[in-house]
Design goal:
By secondary structure, the chain is of the alpha+beta class. It has helices at 17-24, 30-41, 48-58, 64-76, 121-124, 150-153, and strands at residues 81-83, 91-93, 100-104, 110-113, 139-142. The protein is globular, with a radius of gyration of 16 Å. Bound molecules: zinc ion.
């Protein structure tokens, strides 16, 4: 899990635009701030086009290229996760805590789910001897009830 300069763990709730640009090694601009704030407030795993639409509400002059560049620099530093589902457009997740995704096949809703307290991937999966898990990227498919969001699950 990323840590801030004081050694405190950065979670989705504590991540800030300032932290994200510093870690990504880019300069803070008003446009980058708008993109990152949209990401940090989005629990629905938006596409780049959706992030652009939302950022435009606060920052009408922003371009799609700026949004893509910002997202790419964050993804390259693994400050956000890039999700690929079937042939659809990439979706993005700013949740930096270890988690997996559940995709609803019918609605395409995606939510974050976390491992039960105290469990590790080694407890859940039959791993060949010597395999060590460093991070987790997985998705489960199923049905998500209408009132479930990543926000109210944890
Ligand atoms: Zn996620």
């Amino acid at each position: 899990m990323p840590k801030d300069p004081t050694g405190k763990e950065i979670t989705r709730r504590t991540a800030t635009a300032a932290f994200m640009v510093r870690k990504a090694g880019v300069r803070m601009t008003r446009q980058r701030r708008a993109v990152i704030e949209v990401l940090l407030q989005s629990y629905d795993h938006p596409t780049a086009a959706q992030i652009y639409e939302r950022a435009k509400e606060k920052h009408p002059g922003i371009s799609l290229a700026t949004v893509y560049n910002c997202i790419e620099s964050l993804a390259a530093e693994r400050l956000i996760n890039q999700l690929h589902f079937d042939n659809g457009p990439c979706r993005f997740c700013p949740n930096v805590e270890p988690h997996v995704h559940v995709l609803d096949d019918a609605t395409h809703q995606v939510i974050d789910v976390h491992m039960k307290e105290g469990l590790t991937p080694e407890d859940v999966f039959e791993l060949p001897q010597g395999v060590r898990i460093k991070s987790m990227e997985a998705y489960l498919r199923g049905e998500i009830p209408e009132n479930s969001t990543s926000e109210n699950i944890k």
